[in-house]
Amino acid sequence: MVHLEKIIALQKNPANIRNLCILAHVDHGKTTLADCLVASNGIISSRLAGKLRYLDSREDEQVRGITMKSSAISLHYRNGDQEYLLNLIDSPGHVDFSSEVSTAVRLCDGAIVVVDAVEGVCPQTQAVLRQAWLENIRPVLVINKIDRLIMELKLTSQEAYTHLQKILEQVNAITGTLFTSKVLEERAEKEKEEEKESETLSGDQVFDWSAGLEEVDDSHLYFSPEQGNVVFASAIDGWGFSIQQFAHIYSQRMGIKAEVLLKTLWGDFYLNAKAKKIMKGAQAKGKKPLFVQFVLDNIWSLYDAVVTRRDKEKVEKVVASLGIKVMARDLRHSDPKVLLSAICSQWLPVSQAVLSMVCEKLPSPLDMASERAEKLMSVGARRFDSLPAQTQKLKTAFLQCSSEDNAPVIVFVSKMFAVDTKALPKYKPRPLTQEEIVQRRELARQRHADRMAADQTAAESHKELAHSESMSQESQPDSSTVSQTQPPEEEEELKETFIAFARVYSGVVKKGQRVFVLGPKYDPDFLSKVPEGCSASDCVFEVPHLSCCSMESIYLLMGRELEDLEEVPAGNVLGIGGLEECVLKSATLSTTPACPPFTPLNFEATPIVRVAVEPKHPSEMPKLVRGMRLLNQADPCAEVLIQETGEHVLVTAGEVHLQRCLDDLRDRFAKIEISASKPIIPFRETVVRPPKVDMVNEELGKQQKVAIIHQVKEESSQGRSSDTLLVDPSGLVTLTTPNRLATVCVRAIPLPQEVTQLLESNSEVIRTLEQINMSLREGKSLDISLRTLEAIAGLKDQLDSLLQGRKWRNAVERIWAFGPRRYGPNILLNNVDSYQRPSVWQCLGRGDKTVEAGAQAAVLRDFDNSIISGFLLATLSGPMCEEPLMGVCFCVERWDVQSSAPAQHQESFEEDSMSHKALADNKVERSSETSAQEEGMASGLGQAERRPEPASDCYGPVSGQLIAAMKEACRHAFQAQPQRLMAAMYTCEIMATAEVLGRVYGVLGKREGRVLHEEMKEGTDMFIIKAVLPVAESFGFADEIRKRTSGLASPQLVFSHWEVISSDPYWVPTTEEEYLHFGEKADSANQALKYMNAVRRRKGLYVEEKIVEHAEKQRTLSKNK
Ligand SMILES: Nc1nc2c(ncn2[C@@H]2O[C@H](COP(=O)(O)OP(=O)(O)OP(=O)(O)O)[C@@H](O)[C@H]2O)c(=O)[nH]1
Ligand SMILES: [Mg+2]
Question: What positions does the domain Tr-type G occupy (predicted)?
């Protein structure tokens, strides 16, 4: 079994620790490879390696054959004369679980990227390489499943070599794009400088595939066999090698220098037997490259002898020549694969190849780059060097990774995971030592005697006895080693225990130690509020986002098992128990409050599939609520929320993830029957330019356009106070507040598609920009990091270049706000001539743009925030089906606030308004701002709408009325334009053979999918189809494809973008031809209308159905009223 003592000893030497994860596309063989590595430590038998998938410990993981949770295991490995500790994390490859990859990557210094030799680079391969880059961790490559090239594709060794070269090129191409991408430019600069002085690598001609890259020596960033960062393997057959191994073998056998072989074994080199020389240009001369001759041919002939021809004699010869021993029963086994694994796992054990590569090529925790440390520590938009000095000092703690007594403890928790309480080490049977057995026997005898006595005296109080017995066992440390210790059954709460998945970056974590828990919003600037010399153990003071807790237990993570530990030194991955009360999903723990919270994890997946959940029996609601809370904690990506309607909603990354969450909820966390609604599909609402042709492609005449506008006008003025509302034919809406004090004129214009996309992809930058503006408004000065400023300036420049033309002149400078939530993809534009407000870009050229405006403008500025709030509300839910808006620009053309109200309407109001004017302006500004920010604005509006007439305080409502008026104006302006729904779209890549291609297209077509392109995968008979598909049509898609293509790899659906649905939901046939074409009702073809009504129905909004065909529909209608 595992040598726990050995691992504990190794934990103390960070130089020989490697924290690494295995990353790949789904099904490329990560868990199988992990099995081989685990088997090398004797944790599982090597015969079972690849079959067991030991790290897939969940039942559903085993059933479905995919990994859903990342799990860690500690292994030891002897490489040469050094002993290493490897903390290995296996991650899932399915895109639904990519958040699990993020949590794994954060704790590692390196990664093994696995690529299937047949499928090559797939979408998730790209995604994981990107994640590795973003976290600055170093990858090594394993090209797996090479046996498939032999047995399935039946390639010759020469063809296989070409194929492998292509895969390597593909992988390096991704690295290349990452490297040249903006994120890495600075990094390249730095490394160029550092590397200039140090060695200049000689073998230019060797790196053929990287030719064409710039002068920078970036070769170490790429994968290449001669660098030793590539292993070729077949995890299922248990073999793998790097060219180092073969260089070693052949240098001994043929007397060629190992260094020469290392440079030439991979590449266009061949052996000139006569001249006894290795020459370049194998391809041109039609010679066998060395790699084929020395490496692949051997493997090919082994497969040929063992599996294809089953040639006993040859096998024996090979076995003898390799100098390995094969057991007789393996030789006789009816399945040739058994013999093959037996030979291969001795000849080229994959664990050895991979683990020695890991030890040599991946960095240890001591090699943490100072740049990475700064990145982990930088809080929000702040520059590292603007952090308090105490905080900056901690950087050395990161870099030193010291386990000295005085080193501060810094721990990052990347996720919380739930384990069955029964599986905790303290309740687990474990082998007993000889002494313990003796001791135990003694105890048992005694207990037996006791029990006999007790039974006789008080048989009826048996239960209590058992209870007290278990209590006493717990309290006695000696007897806790006894294997039958049971977890306390009576407390249901204890069924699941949460363990933090964490890493120690500095210091030594001790069992029972108290630490500060730093929330993501904690700022080391609060340090001043922490009493001097205060430690986590006397935590009574109140500092925002700072709390304390003690680490009750510390575990070594061993796949399915946990081992109790007393302490863990810096540089190790570990599990921490007892944090569930103070850590939700991730957190930073430290003994010093000067420590900043780590930057948030990079999540690639957007949670998009939402369902409403309810218990089968309404009385079990509390259990469901508790279960959902636990689920939320146990999953890095799932979101749990309660909607305004009171529904409990679960948001997940995709169908598979949803299924897993529901299963977990049912079987582990809530333990009740639950029912889930159909997935709730998100939509966006937008406006488009008026169409030029009608639905049957006829040119639209002027006449009709007018008709549409009339219709809109009629609609919008119906039932509303039309004396305060005016919609002009061009779509300009003028609205006056009920107290007649303020008037706004708003127009809605569609934003160009590129602008919407830009805003969408830059929401983080905009959010930062808003935060900066907020601080500036509060008069705080900020040290903004250069990178942030550049990002903001970049966004502004891009907007400038995209918003061209007369309509958008100077628009970027006039941007008032973004919305909803202040960073959404809609713009509020200030077109009011008399109003000069500070630009949202003021942080770029601070000071010079803020023109002090006159008295009138000053008044306006006081209510400025009401206008923004109204805009935010309007963009949060649109008039079509109360979904958020997207790609809409609202221009405020005119905005008047009268200093006095019209006399005929509100005399009393006027009086008050005059007397308190000056005083109140400030107050109003502040109150409306806080309500907008903190209460999500909804409540403020509700009040304003309900009592439009001011009661006692006449100023509060002015801003309230203005918010409501602005919101209404935006809604009307929106409705004055042609409205459209936007659908969320997935992209997917499907691999299919030519025979089933037609059926794949059939399924795609039926579900409104669109094929983007299709190509043949080289070297195979597979086609790769790239398509987009509306999320609304995606449920069951993967299953259907799998069924129709008889079990092909299921497509991976990744959220990609929002797309305007071209059909107009409000469209009704108007021309004769349209009647002819679509019929009178014309609702059959209108997909947008269907979606819109479905959403409205779900939200309990009024659904207009013209003709009642079924009594059932009428019922739903009346219910909704
Ligand atoms: N032919 C062949 N099959 C392999 C090899 N390695 C793994 N497989 C098979 O590929 C399938 C997927 O293997 P896993 O190890 O579960 O893949 P994974 O990357 O862990 O998958 P996820 O965790 O779901 O992303 C299994 O059926 C394995 O038996 C190999 O070297 N050759
Ligand atoms: Mg797996």
Answer: 15-366
Among protein residues, the one with the nearest Cα to ligand 1's atom 32 is 145
Class at the top of the CATH hierarchy for domain 248-348:
alpha beta
Domain residues of the chain, as ranges?
1-185+225-238+349-364, 248-348, 368-423+494-590, 609-680, 703-901+957-975, 910-954, 979-1063+1085-1099
Identify whether the C-beta of residue 521 lies closer than 8 Å to the C-beta of residue 544.
yes
With a 6 Å cutoff on the Cβ, whether 66 touches ligand 1 is: yes
The residue to mutate among 21, 22, 32, having the most atoms of ligand 1 within 8 angstroms of its beta carbon, is 32
Instruction: Give nearest CA residue, ligand 1 atom 13.
Output: 29
| Higher-confidence position of 508 and 453 | 508
Residue 240 CB–ligand 1 contact under 6 Å:
no
Which pLDDT tens digit goes with each residue over 537-551?
665 567 777 888 888
What is the phi/psi pair of residue 991, to 5°?
A: -105, 130
Total-model pTM:
0.74
**Residue among 356, 113, 162, 360 nearest 266 (CA):** 162
Counting from 1 in the atom list of ligand 1, the atom nearest the Cα of 233 is 31
What is the number of the ligand 1 atom nearest to the C-alpha of 24? 19
What distance in angstroms lies between residue 48's CA and the mean position of ligand 1's atoms? 14
Q: Which numeric CATH code is attached to 979-1063+1085-1099?
A: 3.30.70.240
CATH superfamily, domain at 368-423+494-590: Translation factors (2.40.30.10)
Nearest to 126 by CA among 198, 86, 181: 181
**C-alpha to C-alpha distances, 222 to 25, 229, 610, nearest whole angstrom:** 19, 9, 40
How far is the CA of 272 from the CAs of 255, 279, 287, 652, 1003, in angstroms? 14, 7, 9, 60, 55
The best mutation among 236, 237, 344, 656 to test binding of ligand 1, ranked by most ligand atoms within 8 Å of the C-beta, falls on 236
Domain 609-680 part of CATH 3.10.20.80: no
Of 739, 709, 720, give the one whose Cα is nearest residue 905: 739
Which class does domain 703-901+957-975 fall in? alpha beta
Measured between its terminal Cα atoms, the distance across the chain in Å is 68
Q: Do domains 609-680 and 979-1063+1085-1099 have the same CATH topology?
A: yes
27 lines ligand 1 (CB under 6 A): yes
Of the listed ligands, the closest to the CA of 144 is 1
CA distance 894 to 1021: 64
Angstrom distances, CA of residue 402 to CA of 137, 502, 972: 20, 17, 63
119 C-beta closer than 6 A to ligand 1: no
Among the bound ligands, the one closest to the CA of 55? 2
Digit-coded pLDDT (tens) for 354-396: 999 999 999 999 988 888 888 888 766 567 777 778 888 888 8
Q: Is 234 in the pocket of ligand 1 (CB under 6 A)?
A: yes
* Centre of ligand 2 from the C-alpha of residue 1040, in Å: 23
pLDDT digits (tens, 9 = 90+) for 183-229: 445 555 555 555 554 544 443 333 333 333 444 455 667 898 988 89
Ligand 1 center–CA 30 separation, angstroms: 6
